[in-house]
Design brief:
Blueprint: E1 3-6, H1 12-23, E2 27-32, H2 39-44, E3 49-53, H3 59-73, E4 78-81, E5 86-88, H4 96-124, E6 127-132, H5 145-165, E7 170-177, E8 189-191, H6 221-234, E9 240-243, H7 247-269
Parallel strand pairs: 1-2, 1-4, 2-3, 4-6, 5-8, 6-7, 7-9
């Protein structure tokens, strides 16, 4: 039995992960900005679930949530950074306050929780940190530049973290999910208030009113949760775990396109050394 702390446990993938980890007998600190939205998990699993209010944009809230988990279960073995939301806007349309909030949630929020659990993990020389990214970090469509940039930053942060903590017995992994049947394209999707007509045929087609993907995604959150919990329990996590039948070909295509670009310019690229 290990103790998990999962951010954004109220709905979607976060809730599915919490339910799967609890069903597998783990202790889970289930968190949401509104504690009441995860209270039912604590009621269902009174011995192994702890419902805690957590806002990843508030350092004090993060510290309190981690402290509550440690007080109840003794330690945090697995941190799953899942909290987040979508944001649609052409790059020129992005509102500064919106973008700052997006990055504070996805990047700084991830850093806050990591810093809060690492001292205990370092002391024990064990632990697992799973940071959620998106296929949007690999290939970003019109209108998703800010969201993709935030998730790409999460991936690079995790890459460095993985190297830093590996000698300490700690694993850091990034997960790139495809489309799953959650509220991500519904309640959790936001957009810029600024709208420029010149982008109607590009990013405009992905505005909330034009997005018809909600409720039609192929991915089953419960199946994703089963794969992830099994992977964490089994150890040997890769740096990148891709989830979804749609995600695998998208990621492979993106990597192949990069390889093609490198190959096409290789002869020129290698001519830049000092004579």
């Amino acid at each position: 039995m290990t103790t998990w702390l999962i951010t954004g446990s109220s709905t979607g993938l976060g809730r599915a992960f919490a339910e799967e980890a609890l069903a597998k007998g783990h202790n889970v600190v289930v968190t949401a900005r509104d504690k009441g939205t995860v209270a039912d998990l604590e009621s269902t699993y009174p011995d192994t679930a702890l419902a805690v209010a957590l806002d990843v944009t508030d350092e004090g809230s993060v510290a309190a949530a981690v402290a509550a988990g440690i007080e109840r279960f003794g330690q945090i073995d697995v941190l799953l950074n899942n909290a987040g939301y979508g944001y649609r806007a052409a790059v020129e349309e992005g509102d500064d306050a919106d973008v700052a909030k997006l990055f504070d949630t996805h990047i700084h929020g991830t850093v806050r929780t990591i810093k809060a659990v690492l001292p205990g993990m370092r002391a024990r020389r064990s632990g697992t940190i799973v940071n959620f990214s998106s296929i949007g970090a690999r290939t970003t469509g019109a209108g998703s530049g800010y969201y993709g940039a935030a998730k790409a930053a999460v991936e690079q942060l995790t890459m460095a973290l993985r190297t830093e903590v590996a000698p300490l017995g700690i694993t850091a992994t990034v997960v790139e999910p495809g489309g799953f049947r959650t509220d991500f394209s519904g309640r959790s999707l936001t957009e810029s208030a600024t709208r420029i007509a010149d982008y109607d045929e590009t990013s405009g087609k992905r505005r909330i009113g034009a997005d018809t993907t909600h409720g039609t995604q192929a991915g089953d959150p419960a199946k994703a949760a089963s794969v992830l919990v099994e992977a964490v329990d089994g150890g040997g996590l890769p740096f990148l775990l891709v989830l979804g039948s749609d995600a695998v070909p998208i990621v492979r295509k993106a990597l192949a396109a990069l390889e093609s670009d490198i190959a096409a310019w290789e002869a020129k690229s290698v001519t830049t050394d000092v004579d």
